[in-house]
From TrEMBL:
Family under the similarity heading: Belongs to the MurCDEF family. Mpl subfamily.
Domain Mur ligase N-terminal catalytic: 2-100
Name the record gives this protein: UDP-N-acetylmuramate--L-alanyl-gamma-D-glutamyl-meso-2,6-diaminoheptandioate ligase
Requisite cofactors: Mg(2+)
Record-linked PANTHER family: UDP-N-ACETYLMURAMATE--L-ALANINE LIGASE-RELATED (PTHR43445), UDP-N-ACETYLMURAMATE--L-ALANYL-GAMMA-D-GLUTAMYL-MESO-2,6-DIAMINOHEPTANDIOATE LIGASE (PTHR43445:SF5)
Enzyme class at the top of the EC tree: ligase
Entry EC no(s): 6.3.2.45
Single Gene Ontology MF annotation: ATP binding
Pathway recorded for this protein: Cell wall biogenesis; peptidoglycan recycling
Gene name tied to this protein: mpl
UniProt keyword terms in alphabetical order: ATP-binding, Cell cycle, Cell division, Cell shape, Cell wall biogenesis/degradation, Ligase, Magnesium, Nucleotide-binding, Peptidoglycan synthesis
Keyword Cell division: yes
Lineage: Bacteria, Pseudomonadati, Pseudomonadota, Betaproteobacteria, Nitrosomonadales
Transmembrane segments: none
Amino acid sequence: MHIHILGICGTFMGGLAVLARESGYQVTGCDANVYPPMSTQLIAQGIELIEGYTPEQIQINPDLFVIGNTISRGNPLMEEILNRNLPYISGPQWLSEHILRNKWVLAVAGTHGKTTTSSMLAWILEYSSLAPGFLIGGIPENFGISARLSGRGQSSSNGYESSPFFVIEADEYDTAFFDKRSKFIHYRPKTTVLNNLEFDHADIFPDLAAVQRQFHHFVKTLPGNGLIVANGLERNLQQVLSLGCWTPVEQFGVDDGWQAKLLQNQEIDISFKGRHQGILRWELLGEHNCMNALAAIAAARHAGVPADIAISALSEFKNVKRRMEIRGVIHNITVYDDFAHHPTAIRTTLAGLRNKIGNARIIAVLEPRSNTMKMGIWKDQLADSLQGADLIYCYTHHAEWNVEEALSTLEKKAHLYGELMPMVDAITLATLPGDHIVIMSNGGFEGIHEKLQTSLSKHHH
């Protein structure tokens, strides 16, 4: 069977393409911007890519068009598909019907930490020789790829052997222009993590209640013999579960559930209902990562992995690219790349680093770039979330609101720039040996990481 994927270079659709190829489908695809790293990853898999959405692509004559959620009415190829009444399907529905149907799906949902927690969970199962398949919205360093069908999906003397387990990052963003349900409605997991819940995606949700409604619909699809692993500290999640829940719930972050207690030297005591489960020793920073770890340990236990084995696995966990990833150390100045783009994530990222480095200076470099940030939904919370930094540089290029006013309480700590290179120059001049620079954006930030490191190399000897 031949599928042609519209919007193939997005993380989700690119991962789907890899899974389809591994499953034996002929896969081609197109996107407005065909560029690395996704393009190289796909070409290496033998997937033909076409730049743009020309109507002529219907002459490829696939059996089915798989439509990404960036595609809207007016797209020339989509219009041709509709005019000719050709078969099409959304990415999440295709995944549900062709990849997930007979799997034990472990889904990780929530506003923050989905990618990290999914990566932890996949790694725990891999460490335990359960060889899961996965589709994750980032690249876990332990695997070096964002998606695979199964770790044991190779032919062997006793035939084709494939793991029943599949870990998926379960996003509440909408499915497609013709299906406004959240993606996660399609996944039908047996094990579900509900990490946290805040208002986000202001481009498609009018308010928090609308997001909660989608989570409620999700909970309605979960089986009675499954498990929900839920953050017990999140009121917004408790409200969702109070609307109706037909699945057993294990909580984390609370006394009668899973708990993490920070000891000395980054050691964490893990307990369940007051009973000691083991000591986690790792390099990850911040309380949010302790919560992510608890969620992953609890979910893996439901799949049959004892907590002590899961804790051992996490001691070898290498995190995800762009999650406090050290991009370089130049003359004793450390430059980090982080995906934080929401006040809660910004605050916890800075607090985790502060906990590790003590009194050393933190320079926060922020690009408010997500749709919710661009619209100014979080402007009133932004200044407070940046308090943990000693100096703040904000790139205002995308903001549709008054950033200066929003950050006015930070006074002389905050510096705003509408152009990138003047900001890079200013950061370079302000930086001292021993400083830690945290670059925060959910996009490419116009290559600031390399530009800043080059500038620091020239000016600091």
